[in-house]
Structure formats: structure tokens, C-alpha cells
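Below is how a single chain appears once it has passed through the pipeline. First comes the sequence as given, then the structure the pipeline wrote out for it. We keep one example in the README because the format questions we get most often are answered faster by looking than by reading.
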Amino acid sequence: MAEKVLKQRPVNELEWPEAIHPVLRRVYGARGIKAPDELDYTLERLPSPWLLSNIKTAVTLLRKALARDWRILVVADFDADGATSCAVAVRALRLMGAHKVDYLVPNRFIHGYGLTPAIVAEAVAQGQPDLIITVDNGISSLDGVQAARAANIRVLITDHHLPGASLPAANAIVNPNLPNDPFPSSCLAGVGVIFYVMLALRAHLREQGWFAHRDEQEPALAPLLDLVALGTVADVVPLDQINRILVAQGLARIRQSRCCAGIQALVACARRPLETLATSDLGFAVGPRLNAAGRLEDMSLGIACLLTDSLELAQQQANQLDRLNRERREIESTMQAQAVTHLENLVFQGEEKEPLGYCLFDECWHQGVIGLLAARIRERVYRPVIAFAPHDSEELKGSARSIPGLHIRDALDRVATCYPDLLTKFGGHAMAAGLSLRRGHLEPFRVAFLEVLETLLDKEALEDVILSDGNLEQWDLEMAETLRDGGPWGQGFPEPLFDGVFRVAGFRIVGEAHLKLMLATLDGQQQLEGIAFRCLPPDGFAPGVKIRLAYRLDVNIYRGSRTAQLMVEHLEVI
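Resulting structure:
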């Protein structure tokens, strides 16, 4: 287990309105907020969709599709971002008059990722579309786009993944990560990109008199923000101001029960109250249930759940997703135990120090869960981790998770440049990526990957630092709700984390090896409750001892009762 180092976040001293709680002023200042208007989450603060490269070409293509009643096929990714992106595209296009819009999502185990020639062939076999719209994929689909164009199918790519050296020959590409794209954020999730495309399309149709000519009311797109919020949080993209606006607006709709039937059903399966839902609930309770379909079976189930307007049908589908998620957790638990055994048994030829990164493989591992496994092991070793699983008799699929300080896609690109025959394909972001290679290339790849880490990874980045917002002196429900309402919190805009010394009043093990804590302040004046997930008591842990904690203060809801609770991120006996 990597040693953790507790450090204080630097704080920018700013003038804040009196209405902002002093603790939140400190928290916001530590997250780089430079002015109070950066906390304005009204829709008016969203930048114009016309700032995106190629947006006019994309909108012209979509208007032609509507006017000529083209068959439109949305090709989605098989994760939560892809599923919500698909639901936004299908719902919005139908609202704006599309009569022949359908979707197709690749099966992870059959087709692989993105718009592949195999997916194009399947689309043609099911009834050739006039237009394919990719959501949350497509920027690396050179062969698939070529196959579609050869079949006389137009292609609009909407994606947010980093482009490679060559772009596919699509009719239009909308991606804020295109080189020199003028849009003020490169952090949109796939669902954010397609939402922006639909905003631009509606504006264009309005200007052209589309709705007035058809004697139809202009459709509202704000009801789709619940899907945008879920996909944005689940894809763990940085919550810059634009994404915070999208998430805050979507969360507000969910809390008011103005969300689609599928999200209502998924939240109910997660046993979370709609009226107090937080980003952490989307990320750790709702998102995983949706993701489970793409990891173990077919994401078509998840998309269907998000598209139905029948709460009864949505609940049935959500129950299926919940069952898949429980199965996923069991598989992941087994794989994690095997991976830990791998780590304990590894012998690095002549190496006296821990390697800079890990490449792990087991013939029994499940391809749909290796990303979660890589993330769990990364938490344990605080090194870049790539977990591999068999795809077929010839090929392995890998999922990489990185640490701050190493752009994992750039690392894979360096490997591909220096050793062009090793990787079959790869793609991703700074913190997560996917790759494929032939079975016989696993060991050469491991060696090459470690060589690249030597050149790209600053050794200081290997320090597992916990950044604290300092001390907290109020631990009641009012403070917990103030902190929760101060968000939305998430990747790049982390939930407030504090540290302090307490005395153990008692403890017990609950659930799956979770440490339930009864705590007292050092002066003995206050009693507090806390919980540390996936944590067993360390050496010397006993009632009466002093411990230093890094923790979040959150609202615990149990049988209708709301209390403040410390969510412990780090614990050490002192």
C-alpha cells in the first residue's frame, strides 16, 4: 500500500460576499476561484455553441437530415457517458422533428470500441442509414468512417476524446479537443458535446423559421440536463465552470423530480432520495449501475432505460441493471484479490525498488471490469497501472489508469512512436486510456512502457499526497449541508476535505470490511460518527487512542433520519 502524505492546500485570499460561508470562502479560494461570478451556475453563463469548430457544418448537415427525413443512426459508446449521450441525441432529434432516428451501440466483446467497419456493416444490414452520428466516440474511427463513406453513408462525429495524428474523413467533426478549437473548455464530456450540438441545431432551426413554418412550438432542451449531469459526472471529466453549470442545472431538475423515468428508477435502485441527490450519488451509485450493462452485457439495456417514458418499464430495466452491477462487483472483487496476489508475487529481475508502473494480466480476468481493477490497484500502489484481459486467442485488451503528473495517453503514444509494431490501437485521456495488443507483445510492451515512464514521469509525482482544506471546527448537520450545497463537487473541483486529531471512543466493522467510528473531540465536548470504507483497524488502534483523520463532512440519511458523518479518507494512529 502506497504511503500517503497529508499537505495543506494553498488558498487564494479574495474578497468574498458576506453571504458565502467563511469555510466555503476558504475552500473556493483553494480551488482557484478568482471571482464570485465563477460560482454563477445559471444557464446564461454557458458559452455559445457556435464557438465549437465545424459546428455550422454539423448543423447544416443535421438540418438537411431533418428536412429530407433521412434515416439517422446514433452510434454510442458502451459506458455511462455514451449511454446518456445517445439518449440526449435521440430525444433531442425526435423533439425537433426526426421521424427515423434509431441507435446502435457496439458490444464490447464482439465489436470493440467506436465506429468500426463491423458496426457499419451491421448498420447496413439492419437498414442502411443516410446519416450516422457518433456520440462519445469516433475521433479515432478512421477505418469505420471510411467504410461508412464507401457505403454512401454520411458521418457526423461528436466526441471529446483526444484526436490522433490523423482525423477520420467524416462529413463533420465536433470535438472541443480538436487542435486550436476556440471553444473555451476542452473538458466537456461526450454528453456535453452532443448537448451543445443540439443547442446549435435548435438555434439554427429557429432562425430558419423551421418551427413556425411547421406550426410547432420550439422544443425545450433543458429537460435533457438530467442526462447531461449524469454522463458528465460518471465520465469523471474535470468540473470546470461550464461543466459545473451543466451538472448543477441537471441536479436541480433531478432533485425536483423533473428527470427522465430511467434516472428516477436508477436512483430508486440505489436507495438514494431524489430531493437531496449529490454528485457523489451520481458518480458512485447511479453511474455504476448504468455502466454495468456495458461492462458485462450490452449497453442497449441502459440506453433503453434512459429513453423510456414509462416509469414501470424503467424500473424493470433498472432492476436488471442493478442485478448486473451486483454481478460486476463480485467479479471485480475476485479479480482484485488475484491482482493483489500478482503484486505480492512479482519478482522484478534485479530491481531493488518498486517499478514506476504496473502491467498486470490474468487469463481469467473479465474484459469489462479491467478498468475498475486498474483503478483499484492504482489506489493501492499509487503508480500508473494497466490491467489486461484476453479478448480472443490472438489479442489482449488493456485498460490504463494514471496518476496526476503522467498523461497516460501521451505515454502510450510515445510507446507507439518508439515501437510502432507493439500496439494494435489505443486512445483515451490524461488519466484513463484503452489499448489493444497481440498476446506475444505483452512482455515487450511492459518493458517499453517502463522505459517511457522513466522519461515522462517525474519522481515527485509518485508521492501520494492528500490535499487538505485545513481544520474544521463545526461538525453539525448545518455545516454538512452547507458544504454539500456549495458544489457541485467532482473531478478537478474536489469536495472539501479536512484534517484533524480526534480520540477513538469506539469502533466496529460493518458491511464489507468498513470501519465504523465513534469519535470524540480532544476536549471531550463533542461526539462524532465516522466511517472509513474498505479499511480495517491499523496497528495500535483501540478506544482512547488519538488518531489523525483526513475526512469529508457529509449528510448521512438512515431510515429518514439525517445526521452529520465524517467520511474518512485517511487514518493514522498518533
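The domain at 468-573 is CATH 2.40.50.460 (OB fold (Dihydrolipoamide Acetyltransferase, E2P)).

See the next section for the split statistics.
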